[in-house]
Specification:
single chain; mainly alpha; 82 residues; two-stranded antiparallel ribbon
Length: 82
């Protein structure tokens, strides 16, 4: 048996739920990722996740936290909002 995501959006959901745990419950990044993976809804065999995948998840959560903490949530593009 090996680690696998349950569907194509599971990785994104884990990142978002880890952010929620960090912001609402005050957890650190690693604990939030482990608890989110451990609930069993987003992946199979979470205890067999590779270190590389954990690093990638951690980096994604850190990047999203930087965006949220700077308040820079507006998208930059050619279309204007109004």
């Amino acid at each position: 048996m090996k680690f696998r995501w349950t569907n194509s959006t599971s990785k994104t959901v884990v990142v978002v739920m880890a952010l929620a745990r960090i912001r609402c419950k005050g957890m650190d990044i690693d604990e939030a990722i482990r608890q989110t993976l451990g609930n069993g809804h987003h992946c199979k065999n979470p205890d067999l996740i590779s270190e590389e995948t954990l690093r990638r998840l951690r980096r994604d959560v850190e990047d999203r936290l930087k965006v949220l903490n700077t308040g820079n949530t507006r998208r930059v593009g050619k279309r204007s909002a109004g």
